Recover the amino acids of this structure.
């Protein structure tokens, strides 16, 4: 309830900014050719709807594939870490290092390896969400309280039952948090991966910059931001639905 | 409602959860402001004695700052007061008094719950307050530590001789410590009875077994049960 | 005792790196991997040695840009966090906005910034400022509001002036949050500077990577990538080391 009110205020602030921006543009008409009025950006979105949609579709596919594969890989690594804690101690720094390899440095290599196409951006997207998932899921799989694990032991539950009833649900809040981070990160990764390519939102942004199509650039930017935010919101809603016990479960420690 | 605490007197309001005994203490300390009515402390508004730093407060959570050691935590009020502190006590002597002499430079998070609360009591005393306000200070401790801390509190208080107002929901604790026990009722929160505790001081472990103590506890208990009659537990 | 364990960890990490490089070398030689796919470490090292000046210059430039952006973004973010925290109205509207803006794909903004701020250092620094700004703002706001109600009540009983409440309570309480943000934004500002160099510069590590790739000088490209990764790792490690030195008390991280 309180969160909803916060968002309402935020929404009002956002609308206010857009309106002020529009008024400012009208007043000093075309003094800032690099910052078009919101109405002009809206017009550009309509005008360029077809190229934006065609490129966006590709980016969405890459982001989704990247999110799924990166998250699954992160989950797998977390499962291995939890099962064999010694491995985590030896490999954790390696994973942090891999995470620190700048995406920008990875993109050209992937382009060379896989050529222009869907693969390189997908991998960049996957890398972007792998790390948060690996870290969060490792924590999540360890989040089950000792007493609930004792309870399962007392019931002589099997490993699978313990996972389904206790470890899995206990890790869900952490996994959802990683997905909330991962969804925008995947869109970002795919976009950066496309910069050097020939299609996708990243390509569209880059070519609009090179060709100085200011309105197209802003329009694409707004759409890309909207998509990244939508990804975040999608998983926020999913989290609220799936982790209904969240706050109370945390309260009872 | 009127609440009188004389110099060197130990007063303990008791009551069930939600009867407003913590609120009472917070109003006195000027931590909350009353929605209706006025609070008068010593003929003045509670803000005045607070500005003069006449209160020493101990909460259930000792709120020691983890980035400071024990001594620095005890000295904190002196630093906050700056030159404004009239005649602060020697913090090291206070630490000795509460039995933490060997732990003056220990990290607060390495101390046990009882030791943390000892440090919090030393901190509350460092500006030589006129009145010590204690809000369930031992509520989070286990029963045995709690008994030990009650004995310690009596010892410390009898050495420093400030007035004390301690909120608790333990009848035995209130009777053991206080000169007067105030019985509070929930909804509306008010003081329904006042019981003087005729036990002689100094009190010690033997006090718990004395007939006077038991008799006083049962009297307060009856008053308390009478006050909550008709409300579901 | 602790330094001994530190040395042991360092030794283990060093062994892991050496083993990693050795396997890489072995695989590339045995399988005769073409240089455009994956150069041998030895070849990369050679490229590093022959292009030491170029790489060093690019490294210095990128590091300087990232550092300026990191400092600028943090100063801006923390000052704003102070302002926000002192006004509950602004902070109620501001925190969700800051968290929302934090998930904006900032890196993807680069083409837009390049148009707005032109080709040159300004765009690169603005990018690095932006990437450090939001973590600092969010950490500052959460951290300064982290003290418990009881701790604030204690300060009130002591009649502590606002200045003392900040110095003694709010700022120390905010430090763990700040360092957590530093660990994110220090390497991220290096990344941001490099991305901006793609579009807004013809110098620096980011540009060097792209340029070497475009000229098919793959060993040089890899040498630059290794250098870039090293800067990012060092930036993270420096933030982590500063955290360990400063935060000597246990912290319950949310």
């Amino acid at each position: 309830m309180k969160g909803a009110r916060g968002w309402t205020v935020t929404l009002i602030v956002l609308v206010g900014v857009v309106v002020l921006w529009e008024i400012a543009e009208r007043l000093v008409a075309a003094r800032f050719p690099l910052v078009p009025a919101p109405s002009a950006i809206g017009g550009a979105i309509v005008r360029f709807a077809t190229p934006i949609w065609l490129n966006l579709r590709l980016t969405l596919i890459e982001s989704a594939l990247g999110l799924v594969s990166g998250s699954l890989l992160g989950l797998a690594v977390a499962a291995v870490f939890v099962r064999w804690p010694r491995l985590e101690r030896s490999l954790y720094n390696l994973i942090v290092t891999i995470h620190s390899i700048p995406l920008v440095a990875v993109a050209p290599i992937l382009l060379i390896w896989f050529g222009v196409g869907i693969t390189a951006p997908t991998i960049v997207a996957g890398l972007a969400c792998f790390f948060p998932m690996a870290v969060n899921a490792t924590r999540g799989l360890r989040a089950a309280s000792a007493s609930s694990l004792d309870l399962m032991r007392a019931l002589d539950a099997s490993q699978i039952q313990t996972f389904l009833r206790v470890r899995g649900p206990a890790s869900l809040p952490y996994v959802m948090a990683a997905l909330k981070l991962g969804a925008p990160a995947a869109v970002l990764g795919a976009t950066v991966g496309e910069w050097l390519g020939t299609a996708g939102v990243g390509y569209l942004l880059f070519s609009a910059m090179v060709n100085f199509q200011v309105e197209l650039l802003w329009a694409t930017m707004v759409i890309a931001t909207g998509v990244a935010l939508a990804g975040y919101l999608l998983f926020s809603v999913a989290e609220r639905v799936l982790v209904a016990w969240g706050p109370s479960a945390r309260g009872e420690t | 409602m009127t609440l009188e605490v004389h110099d060197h007197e130990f007063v303990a309001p008791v009551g069930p959860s939600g009867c407003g005994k913590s609120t009472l203490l917070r109003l006195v300390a000027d931590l909350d402001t009353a929605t209706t009515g006025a609070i008068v402390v010593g003929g003045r508004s509670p803000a005045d004695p607070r500005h003069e730093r006449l209160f020493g407060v101990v909460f259930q959570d000792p709120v020691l700052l983890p980035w400071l050691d024990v001594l620095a935590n005890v000295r904190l009020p002196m630093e906050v007061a700056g030159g404004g502190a009239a005649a602060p006590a020697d913090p090291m002597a206070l630490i000795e008094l509460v039995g933490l002499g060997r732990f003056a430079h220990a990290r607060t998070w390495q101390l046990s719950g009882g030791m943390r609360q000892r440090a919090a009591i030393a901190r509350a005393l460092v500006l030589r307050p006129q009145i010590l306000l204690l809000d369930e200070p031992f509520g989070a401790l286990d029963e045995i530590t709690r008994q030990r801390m009650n004995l310690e509190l009596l010892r410390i208080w009898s050495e420093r001789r400030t007035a004390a107002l301690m909120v608790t929901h333990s009848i035995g604790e209130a009777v053991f410590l206080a000169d007067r026990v105030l019985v509070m009722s929930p909804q509306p929160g008010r003081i329904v009875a006042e019981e003087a505790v005729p036990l002689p001081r100094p009190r010690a472990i033997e006090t718990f077994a004395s007939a006077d103590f038991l008799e006083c506890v049962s009297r307060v208990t009856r008053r308390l049960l009478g006050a909550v009659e008709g409300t579901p537990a | 005792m602790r330094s001994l364990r530190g040395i042991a960890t360092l030794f283990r990490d060093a062994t892991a790196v050496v083993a990693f490089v050795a396997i890489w070398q072995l695989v590339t030689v045995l399988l005769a991997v073409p240089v455009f796919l994956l150069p041998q470490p030895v070849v990369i090292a050679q490229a590093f040695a022959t292009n030491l000046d170029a790489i060093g210059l690019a490294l210095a430039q990128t590091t300087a840009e990232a550092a300026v952006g990191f400092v600028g973004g943090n100063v801006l973010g923390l000052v704003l966090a102070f302002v926000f925290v002192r006004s509950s109205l602004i902070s109620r509207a501001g925190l969700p906005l800051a968290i929302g803006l934090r998930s904006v794909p900032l890196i993807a903004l680069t083409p837009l910034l390049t148009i707005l701020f032109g080709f040159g250092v300004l765009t690169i620094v603005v990018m690095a400022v932006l990437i450090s700004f939001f973590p600092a703002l969010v950490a500052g706001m959460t951290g300064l509001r982290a003290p418990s109600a009881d701790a604030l009540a204690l300060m009130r009983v002591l009649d502590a002036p606002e200045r003392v409440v900040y110095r003694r309570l709010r700022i120390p309480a905010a430090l763990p949050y700040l360092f957590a943000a530093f660990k994110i934004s220090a390497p991220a500002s290096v990344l941001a500077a490099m991305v901006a160099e793609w579009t807004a510069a013809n110098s620096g590590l980011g540009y060097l990577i792209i340029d070497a790739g475009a000229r098919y000088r793959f060993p040089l490209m890899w040498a630059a990538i290794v250098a870039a990764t090293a800067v990012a790792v060092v930036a993270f490690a420096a933030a982590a080391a500063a955290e360990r030195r400063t935060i000597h008390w246990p912290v319950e991280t949310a």
In short: Residues 247-253 of chain A have pLDDT under 50 and may be disordered. Residues 83 and 141 of chain A are 10 Å apart (CA to CA).
